[in-house]
Here is the input.
Amino acid sequence: MSVQPSTIIIPVESQVRELDAKILLACAAAERGFPVIIGSRAFIHFQVDSLPRGVYLAKSMRTLSIRMFSILRDLGHEIVGWDEEGLVRWPDDEYYRWRLSPVTLKKLSHLLTWGEDDARVLRNYPGYPGTPIHLTGNPRIDLLRPELRAFYQQKADLLREKYGDFILINTNFSKVNHFFPRLSELKKPALALEAGGEETFDAGKGRLKQVLFEYFQEMLPTLCRLMPGHTIVVRPHPAENHGPWLDIAKQYTTLKIFNEDSVTPWLMAAKVLIANGCTTMIEAAVLGTPTVAYQPVIGGKYDDDLPNEVSHRAFSLEELGVLVKEIMAGEKGPLEETERRRILAPHITALDGRLSCDRMVDVLVEAGYRHNLPPAVPLGSYVRGWLHNRVRTASKKINMRRPGHRNNFAYHQHRFPGVTADEIQTRIKRLGALIGRFEHLRVERLSEYIFRIDQSG
Here is the structure.
């Protein structure tokens, strides 16, 4: 009896944040006999009714995914899910409301988690249907580990050569400063609160985000004056509007605004990172880059505590200036590694030992997907899924032409700019060279935004 492995389908929403890690995951899967399809999430969804029956790796389980998950299951695909945003979370009840749905969870065959704390939250969710949960970690952390971070070393060296001892500032204000303003999800609740509205969590969180957004804008000119001999680089969140930051940068020659490529080489090259409640602060902590949590206001339950806990803290511009000067002078480094590890251990699996990407593939192998396709669905179910996806695709493509819509093509290009098969192949070779793997993998371009990775020959 011939073996027919399931195709692993890996969607990517934000290229600068996810692509390298998901290429690593794709390589780990292809190396063990799985054909892999990877590319833009939007365009994979457009073509999912023509893809081989397989396993779709979902990066979120929100209510917004109900329709797509139903289509996937009707077409015969199984779904294995994790939450890309599950590391830095809101309080449990609010996280459940924003990020989980009992309907989507029922459609999952397996759940993968960043760590034990992530798993705890899923197990305690009132709508949790008993889906098997696996502590795997996330391949984004794999790329920060000593054995793989050299993947970014050349870029980091070039950045250091170009900008010297630079200061990196990461922002995460897309919910009040979105690429398309009407998609700023917390802006309206914050404004309603200012007008005397109800103190809901969204309103309070939106108000904190808006105040911090304003403080960070005010901080930049002061920092430029305090550190005149150093370049200051601002990397806005991938979904943010760069306009406010660019307006400030016009006034200061040492202030630069970038969002290209992965943040990792920037974190490796920077002398210090300044942020607030941002996942990149955790990534910096894994790398050992000194980090300052700028907290000019304390938000209580609205604060994202974990990133701030692995950082030095500055509660005023004066404190920020002192800390940055000490770090730039080499008088202060990151928090002690043992302390960082103690804080991160409950939240991140695979800080060492077996790579997260391999742990994820272990789950797929143990579930039987390497030797079997998911069960075929009845013809009526398949036809229903095919028709629903054609209708959905037509609607989404119309929306791509609508200015300001979340599916607008300009926004897609902002999150997933073009990449070639040769570029992906080059990344695979560089990853493989670091760990002695992936020698016989090939990349085939299926369409402009979708690629196939499998074993050659």
